[in-house]
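The aim of this short unit is practical: by the end, you should be able to scan a pair of folded records and say something sensible about each. We start with the first protein, listed as its amino acid sequence and then its structure tokens.
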Amino acid sequence: MLKTNISDGWSSDEPRSLMTLALDVVESLYGLKARDQAQVSLFALEQELAEQLKDQERPTAQQLLSALYGPLGMAGDWERFFSSDNCLMNRVLSRRRGIPVTLGILLLHLCERFGIKAEGIGFPGHFLVRVWFKKEGVVIDPFTGRHLSRHEMEQLLRGARGNLARIKPNHLKAAEKLDILTRLLNVTKASFIHHKQFSQALACSQLLLKLKPDCPFERRDRGFLFEQLDCDQLAADDFEFFIEHCPEDPVADVLKAQIVALDLGPKTLH
């Protein structure tokens, strides 16, 4: 169950910042207290960063990065990469540790806060941030705070897509806010599934369906989560939705057998 219906506002015309959307996820999963704690941590980080940059009339991107990934301790969490602590913004802010997409969201927020132009890049397998140094856009790995060369980006791409993959212009285009939010929810859901926290994973799936209500693949995934939680009829409903909308998908036949195994009585499959 979601703690709030705050995600209902995601489809409205009201402008919401990327950080606000990330905090919406925290509130939807864990309530207003968790969101308030996140905002306290965010304010503390902003104040510490302002103190680090106080001698700069107009801070540069390099000065901001050096402060964040230096004395302020922001860093990628190599040791617990798949932990939900690295996906939930309240825990990322309190620990100053995360994965590329959460640290990227935080970096984008702080760049905006200190007047530095930046944009997110939905790079395959590894979220990136483009930051402007004077008039030049430079690609930064938010996991390390380092500038990436084209060769390093190609290595990341091959790790995600195979050795024959090559960088194309669409790999480096700016990502929309809701696309970044979708990516955040997907990695958070995957982390919960990895740790067999199926109720929390289901909550993420429900949020994803707020963004894409008729996505058959998300309905299929939600069905698997319902099945894990012994909600057999709800699982069957989602599986049937997928079968109806993707009858040629190889998974459709598997799901037909899955529905029979749920022992729900006769079903009409299309």
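Turning to the second protein, read its sequence before its tokens, just as you did above.
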Amino acid sequence: MVEQRVGLGEIAREWGRIGLLGFGGPPAHILLLRRLCVERRKWMEPAEFEDGIAATNLLPGPASTQLAVFTAWRLRGTAGALVGGACFIAPGLVLILALSVLFLAGDPPLWVLGAAAGAGAAVPAVAVQAATSLVPGSFARVGRERAARARWLGYALAGAVAAILTGPWLVLVLVAAGLAEIAVRARGRRAALPVAAVLPALPVLGGLGAVAWVAFKVGALSYGGGFVIIPLMQDDAVHRYHWMTDGQFLNAVALGQVTPGPVVHTVAAVGYAAAGLGGGMLAAAVAFAPSFLFVVLGARHFDRLRSNRRVQDFLTGAGPAVVGAIAGSAVPLAASLGEGWQWGVLAAALLWLVAARRGVVLTLLAAGAAGVVAAAAGLPVA
């Protein structure tokens, strides 16, 4: 632990500030946490912070949230983790629930419908950009061996196909890719493979039980965080439980991108559509609870986790499947677009994000403004 004792009030203030200003997803969160903990306050050594990033990326669920919880745990143990994590999550959660009331209302104003349709049209481009940004690091992990690179491509293709076709069963494909890589790298060594007992869907659940189950899958069973949660949620929210239309789901994903804090806040918008504010709060609580548990119970063992050969092999296989799944999620998202002008917005967003490499938040805001213009011009937006 650090030599000076950092007060819980200071942790609440600093982590709350990052949660309020953390637009742009995990890269922005990591940068802000590093500036605070390493550069400005010198609470952590650079190497220790980088080790924290590596360790939290080994866990399922939202990695940047787990990093926020871990850094606060590093300063004040369990109490710090609970306070820091809660304050990091709270600003974005309050904002996304407030926007859900506006954008997912039964009869919203025309300009709101236009803004939602415009921002939603850009969401598939955000998924493509998220996937392409992960490719270099994931591909470098497998090394130069031709067979390993061929397996990488196979895992990525499997993840993409699963995201397009299987919906909630995607998590089984991610786990299978990881287990396959362990088996290949074992090369005859007698090693016990980890077992993941995953239940992708429980159609007998109803009401808040179903909301909790969908949120649990997002928080505890999704490797890679971010956009890999989209295919996990879409089938349940739209097709299985009929909480939302395809268009409303796109709106929820867009809201998760334009609000500060972790992208997993999207699950709160889904919970709101299912059961109002209570459903949104329940979904957020269930989705984020595993992050707190993983860190509070396991932070002392992070070094051992990082050095475990089987864990590394598992992530070498699951990683490219996650990349493929994120890219594949763009297909059903794009299929949800119902108006011709939305495809123009999508094409522009792809150029802006992937070719020009510009920011996600600005892209979604511009797409939303284009939707407002389209609504004012009398184009269909609902």
